[in-house]
Amino acid sequence: MFATTRATAFAAKRAFSTSAANLSKVAVLGAAGGIGQPLSLLLKENPHVTHLALYDIVNTPGVAADLSHINTNSKVTGHTGIGKGLEDALKDAHVVVIPAGVPRKPGMTRDDLFNTNASIVQGLAEAAAKHCPKAHILIISNPVNSTVPIFAEVMKKAGVFDPRRLYGVTTLDVVRASRFVAEVKNKDPKDVKVTVVGGHSGVTIVPLLSQTGFDFTKEELDALTHRIQFGGDEVVKAKDGTGSATLSMAFAGARFANSVLEATVGGKKDVIEPTFVKSDVFAKEGVDYFSTLVELGPEGAEKIHGLGQISEYEQKLIDAALPELKKNIAKGAAF
Length: 335
Ligand SMILES: NC(=O)C1=CN([C@@H]2O[C@H](COP(=O)(O)OP(=O)(O)OC[C@H]3O[C@@H](n4cnc5c(N)ncnc54)[C@H](O)[C@@H]3O)[C@@H](O)[C@H]2O)C=CC1
Ligand SMILES: O=C([O-])CC(=O)C(=O)O
Known about the structure:
The structure is a single chain. With 335 residues, this protein is α/β, with parallel strands linked by helices. The protein has 2 domains: 25-169, NAD(P)-binding Rossmann-like Domain (Rossmann fold, 3-Layer(aba) Sandwich), CATH 3.40.50; 170-334, Lactate dehydrogenase/glycoside hydrolase, family 4, C-terminal (L-2-Hydroxyisocaproate Dehydrogenase, Chain A, domain 2, Alpha-Beta Complex), CATH 3.90.110. Helix content is 45%, strand content 17%. It has helices at 2-20, 36-44, 60-67, 84-90, 114-131, 144-157, 171-185, 218-229, 231-239, 247-264, 312-334; strands spanning 24-29, 49-55, 75-79, 95-98, 136-139, 166-168, 196-198, 205-207, 271-278, 289-297, 300-304. It has a 6-stranded parallel β-sheet with strand order 3-2-1-4-5-6, with helices on both faces. The chain has a 3-stranded antiparallel β-sheet with strand order 9-10-11. The longest helix has 23 residues, at 312-334. The radius of gyration is 20 Å and the shape is globular. The protein binds 1,4-dihydronicotinamide adenine dinucleotide and oxaloacetate ion (OAA). Oxaloacetate ion is lined by residues 103-104, 110, 142, 172, 232, 235-236, 244-245. It is an enzyme of class 1 (oxidoreductase). It holds the Pfam family Ldh_1_N. It comes from Absidia repens. This is Malate dehydrogenase.
């Protein structure tokens, strides 16, 4: 009797997650890497995903075989090789998540990754423009401030750029900010929402702590702002030459991918996330991409919010962020 009840409950849960889901293909490019593997694991659990296509230049058959034994509804395929392998991974993809590229070592800035990662991202963009021009593209590869404009320029050149469907993933900054503020204020992070705007490196990361509903001393503001801006360095230093954030990034990437899936195929309304997109917010200042809260809908990034009310302290952070962002974006666009 007990076994039957449990079996019935299990079947009901499965039936719910299957019927509630509006299913689609998700491709992960760089799927065998430090981020790619745990990210793919988390996506394997996502009920919106019907097909998880894992692409990397190495090791995807093993990662795909391993993940394919997990008893969730999606099919898993592994792909390698920059021609047919990449084409098969991308064809019919609804969402493409890209953590391909080299990570930092201590002493490096994200911009130091430009030389290697720019061409990796450019190559992947050329393939996406050809094989899945309508997919929602989520860029994790650093430096995000430059790799997003690189991707956009390739799509423009191919005549398939849709600014609503290209997102720089800045969710890790939001995740960190929530965790760090919760620690200081002794709260559960699930109750702490921090909007982080700007870009994804050092001073271009601007947390809007005045909008959290908490009061902060000047010391707390300085310490938290610095920790959120340079959280990535903490991990790079602790990993001591073996890489940068992978597990927390996988968590953040899976969260953002889920938001895109919920808004585009799940029929969910009011999905709002900060993300680095083509934006008018500082276009007059010559900054064509910027992260603010963005409303996601069936077509992607449908409504870009402004900064809202910000403090004098935050205005200074924005003033410091804009010239650096402008430089990073121009470098990417000119590549
Ligand atoms: N946006 C963000 O918040 C964050 C971004 N990152 C960035 O993510 C990237 C990946 O980091 P990890 O996974 O730690 O590095 P990793 O070195 O562990 O993995 C990268 C993977 O990319 C693959 N790869 C290289 N060239 C490729 C190509 N042309 N096509 C497909 N795959 C290719 C490699 O074979 C490797 O498996 C780095 O650029 C890192 O800086 C890391 C953390 C946070
Ligand atoms: O710090 C890095 O190089 C990786 C990254 O973007 C982050 O952890 O925010």
